[in-house]
């Protein structure tokens, strides 16, 4: 009997080892995601390795984007943040191979992983183990969405948690109850947003949605909560999950976007 850790081809989430693929993907069957129109399908990490290559690009001083080509599953970007006190992988992608590990190690390796929300859990267990069983921070409010727990998992509680000096995870909710953003209090401040806040293609606004692919909006209460959790947090730049980055005036752009939402609600 051969056991495999099957990966959902649509969302990229890896499930525990089993002889046969799971019957369902709970991430895709949730209304924030979707099951492929051709039906549920599965792959493995070794198969992804043969069909996809990871790209690692420097996008700012001390910040690198990591993504796969050709695109796989949701096609989000992970980000490697270098700090004086250690390197952080913010969010995760499904593909992990030897060349990716080698490049990341050449950049100082990884000390901590932090995941914004369940859509980006992907193969986080594999990433943690390949870099020395490093800790993975996930908010406890999203625990029910975890498909694997056989790694160095640290569950967050509360609204804010400092995971390294000058690096704080903020639970602002919205897209998922446990949805977090990462604040790096260095220079003029940086915000890595996952899907709680998406940088719009015009780079002059941001979006906040319950479901992006199915176009389900957030409530006014949820938008105001995101705004409230970020009050008093200084940041000049904002980095989204799909290559859209705000390089200046991010706080003003966020405020403009919230005000625009509130006008629509009224």
Explain what you see.
The longest helix has 16 residues, at 250-265. It contains five helices and 19 strands. The strands form five sheets. A seven-stranded mixed beta sheet has the order 3-4-5-6-7-8-9. It has 266 residues and is of the alpha+beta class. Helices cover 19% and strands 27% of the residues. It has helices spanning 45-51, 98-106, 124-130, 220-230, 250-265, and strands spanning 7-8, 42-43, 53-60, 63-69, 78-83, 86-90, 112-114, 136-139, 153-156, 160-164, 167-171, 180-184, 190-192, 198-199, 206-207, 209-211, 216-217, 237-239, 245-246. The radius of gyration is 18 Å and the shape is globular. The chain has a single domain, classed as Ribonuclease Z/Hydroxyacylglutathione hydrolase-like (Metallo-beta-lactamase, Chain A, 4-Layer Sandwich).
């Amino acid at each position: 009997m051969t056991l495999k850790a099957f990966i959902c081809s649509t969302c990229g989430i890896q499930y525990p080892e089993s002889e046969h693929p799971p019957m369902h993907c709970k991430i895709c069957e949730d209304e924030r995601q979707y099951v492929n129109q051709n039906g549920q399908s599965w792959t493995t990490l070794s198969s992804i390795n043969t069909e996809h290559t990871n790209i690692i690009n420097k996008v700012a001083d001390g910040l690198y984007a990591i993504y796969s080509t050709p695109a796989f599953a949701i096609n989000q970007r992970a980000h490697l943040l270098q700090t004086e006190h250690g390197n952080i992988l913010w969010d995760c992608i499904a593909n992990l191979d030897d060349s990716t590990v080698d490049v990341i190690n050449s950049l100082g390796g990884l000390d901590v992983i932090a995941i914004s929300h369940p859509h980006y859990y992907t193969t986080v267990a594999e990433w943690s183990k390949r870099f020395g069983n490093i800790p993975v921070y996930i908010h406890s409010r999203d625990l029910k969405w975890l498909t694997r727990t056989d790694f160095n998992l640290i569950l967050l509680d509360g609204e804010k948690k400092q995971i390294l000096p000058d690096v704080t995870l903020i639970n602002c909710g919205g897209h998922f109850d446990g949805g977090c953003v990462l604040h790096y209090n260095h220079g003029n401040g940086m915000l890595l947003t996952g899907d709680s806040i998406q940088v719009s293609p015009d780079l002059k606004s941001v979006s906040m949605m319950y479901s992006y692919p199915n176009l389900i909006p957030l409530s006014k209460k949820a938008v105001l909560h995101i705004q409230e959790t970020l009050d008093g947090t200084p940041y000049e730049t904002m980095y989204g999950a799909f290559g859209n980055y705000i390089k200046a005036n991010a706080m003003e752009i966020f405020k403009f976007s919230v005000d625009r939402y509130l006008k629509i609600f009224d």
